[in-house]
Amino acid sequence: MESYHNLFLCLTHNLKKLSKEILLITNYFPPEKGAAANRMQSIAEGLGKSGYTVKVVCPLPNYPSGKIFEDYSGKFVVTENVSFGKIIRLWVWPSNSINKLVRLLSMVSFSFSLVLYFIFNKIPKKIFIQYSPVFVGFTAVCLGRLFSNLPAGKAGKTILNVSDLWPLAGVEMGILKKGWYYSLLLKMERFCYRNADLIVGQSEEILQHISNFEKVKPSFLYRNIPDFSIPLISERSSSQEIKIVYAGLLGIAQGLLQICQQLSFPKNVSFHIYGAGPEAEKIKALQKQNVFFYGELGREELHSELQNFDIAFVPLLKRIYGSVPSKIFEYTRLGLPVLYFAGGEGGEIVANESLGWVISVNDFEALQRFIDTLSEKELKRFPKETVQKNSVLAFDFNRQFEAFTASIEAVQ
Predict the structure, then answer these.
(1) What domains are there in the chain, each with its CATH number?
(2) What's the Cα-to-Cα distance from 116 to each of 76, 121, 156, 310, 344, rounded to whole Å?
(3) Against a cut of 0.90, is the pTM above it?
(4) 145 near 157, Cβ under 8 Å?
(5) Residues 188-199: tens digit of each pLDDT
(6) Do 137 and 195 form a contact (C-beta atoms < 8 A)?
(7) Are the C-beta atoms of 23 and 126 separated by less than 8 Å?
């Protein structure tokens, strides 16, 4: 009788363990840098601390350079054991080309690797999918339905993390035009929404957009709140120079090159740029008064450097519906007031939580006036200590993650 009891306990333990497994599929993951990679890492680590065994499936790291990182070069599959489970990095044909066909082929190459992974591996009941890119998200949703490691007749559960409203965002940025290709992407987008069991969105606008198609779909608002210790605020130097900083992707949407070309900076204001991306070399080559370019730094080193600045700049050239730049949460937790030049929901957050200044998107005249009249008195409107306090109170990672895991547990 005791042996039957032990067998029952063993089976119960194994079933419980299986139910606490989750597969995360993402196109971006550290050592790659950026909001998407940081978000997926914090989610993986958070789920691990919540008792899940996590498998992350992602491409060999290549973003944003479009080249496989040196430590992974020449490899097809790399498996890494980490605190929360495993990271499985699959072959991809990398590219950061602005050519749509070339970028499409790159995404399709990772989708092909995903198909092979699903064929030859057992897949947990729950799959967390980072959407976009559209093709990767669409492939993962299809595969999740086909290959979940469950008894016949029981479909796996798909949790779709929507951080950008593609293809709509592509049209708004001028990358895509409406036509047959756009229509195809729309069908793929709505297929993903329709077949998800839980929608996780990074903004209220994203969830509102999806509710237009899936009115009763369970959803969860997951802000890109970072999870790092709150640093002490360093005292401002006696220098009268006011230092504005941008740190992040140097791409078309952010428009740092155009911003640097159109703006001028008076003697008492300087602009400092950290990052990498398609516009990096052109920004580096600029000869502009009080504009400085430093390249890319690791996250911890960057956080240390950012303490030396007075204002963090958050720009987008065009208002992108659904977009809330994660830099808002990152910078303000460090104590930097934000100069927000991107429009939409992010501007409402900055204004409502008293995190800095908001200037209408693409209003270069207003931005230039702000820079020309920037003074010590204006800085005192948003003291670093107050901005950091407001940010920490409004955006608590642990509180949000506890509710997030509860929403995942509810998906049965």
Answers:
(1) 2-225+396-409 (3.40.50.2000), 242-394 (3.40.50.2000)
(2) 12, 9, 18, 49, 40
(3) no
(4) no
(5) 999 999 999 999
(6) no
(7) yes
